[in-house]
Automatic annotation (TrEMBL):
Pfam family, one: MS_channel_2nd
One function term, GO molecular function aspect: mechanosensitive monoatomic ion channel activity
Protein name: Mechanosensitive ion channel MscS domain-containing protein
Main location: membrane
Keyword annotations of the record: Cell membrane, Membrane, Transmembrane, Transmembrane helix
Membrane topology designation: Multi-pass membrane protein
Entry's transmembrane regions: 23-40, 61-80
Species whose genome carries this gene: Candidatus Desantisbacteria bacterium CG1_02_38_46
Matches recorded under Gene3D superfamilies: 1.10.287.1260, 2.30.30.60, 3.30.70.100
Domain Mechanosensitive ion channel MscS, residue spans: 108-181
Annotated Gene Ontology cellular component terms: plasma membrane
Domain of life: Bacteria
Sequence similarity: Belongs to the MscS (TC 1.A.23) family.
Length: 306
């Protein structure tokens, strides 16, 4: 309020000293304000272009916010300079600000989240992310919504469903965000570690099974292996009716389902050819013996009924 009073006093002194009609003086003041606006807008636009790496599509919303802010301040100063009642002006501004702050709480939160995403870049257009439990590829980052092409949803796995999902930017502050494709400057970080679980029987030859799995992964992901220099590897666990062999390899997030399908196809084909490995499945085996007259226990092999 003291600032507005001082501003009003300065404008009054200027108008007294300038020997021209007040109307022309105010037009000159408006012209000066417009020139200042153009200069500041140009400087802000250049700074934003550097921040956004020359992406002009991202300039619209920040410049719109800047225009609203500048002209709101300019109008308040103009009304104060023309001799308006400062007490009434301040009370009206406070009341309007309170009402707008209450009614626009979510939109304001959304704008703050948009600024966070724009400046900090936790994800960008083209990244595969999980937001609010929804997996998708980011297509657009708007002021109010993040538009994603959903992955999965009506189908199993992680393939594109073709559906667009709009996530309100306001929820970004309340949810954990997982980014599949962050830090592209590191080669291996463009890929994620994936795995295929193969259950083999206890009597299978370990070396043969391991070779089949590793060779299958190498055949499908050899271009990724060449780029990342990360070889496929095996991790295993015992289970009651077999062995879990976990084939782990790096895959592109967007091609994860296709890569796992191709590897599985090769593994099934090679297991069918080999007599030294077989898949395990939940089952039970019973061994029956009987005692012969001489006291010797012999296995029981019932004859098939004719």
């Amino acid at each position: 309020m003291n600032f507005l009073k001082g501003f009003q006093k300065i404008i009054g002194e200027i108008l007294k000293k300038i020997p021209i009609p007040k109307g022309i003086t105010w037009m000159l003041i408006l012209l000066v304000i417009y020139v200042i606006y153009r200069i500041l807008t140009h400087l802000i636009e250049r700074a934003l272009l550097k921040t956004f790496h020359e992406d002009t599509h991202k300039l619209k919303i920040p410049l719109r916010i800047w225009r609203i802010f500048f002209w709101a301040i300019a109008i308040i100063l103009f009304l104060a300079g023309t001799g308006g009642n400062l007490a009434t002006l301040g009370l009206s501004a406070a009341l309007i600000g309170m009402v707008l702050g209450w009614s626009l709480q979510r939109p304001v939160t959304g704008i703050a989240a948009w600024l966070l995403v724009t400046i900090m870049k936790p994800f960008k257009i083209g990244d595969r992310v999980i937001i609010a439990g929804i997996i998708g590829d980011v297509k657009n980052i708007g002021l109010m919504y993040v538009t994603m092409e959903q992955v999965g949803g009506t189908i199993g796995g992680e393939e594109k469903s073709g559906r667009a999902v709009l996530i309100p930017t306001a929820v970004l502050f309340d949810n954990v965000i997982m980014n599949y494709t962050m830090r592209e400057e590191v080669e291996e970080s463009k890929y994620i570690l994936d795995e295929i679980i193969v259950r083999i029987a206890h009597d299978s030859k370990w070396d043969v099974a391991e070779k089949i799995l590793i060779d299958a992964a190498y055949e499908v992901t050899k271009d990724i292996i060449k780029e990342t220099r990360r070889q496929p590897f095996i991790r295993a666990d015992f289970i009651d009716w077999g062995i879990y062999m976990r084939l782990r390899y790096y895959a592109r997030p967007v091609d994860r389902q296709e890569i796992s399908t191709n590897i599985t196809k090769i593994i099934c084909r090679e297991f069918a050819k080999s007599e030294e490995v077989r898949f395990a499945y939940p089952h039970s085996e019973a061994e029956i013996t009987y005692t012969a007259r001489g006291g010797e226990q012999l296995p029981f092999h019932p004859q098939p009924q004719k």
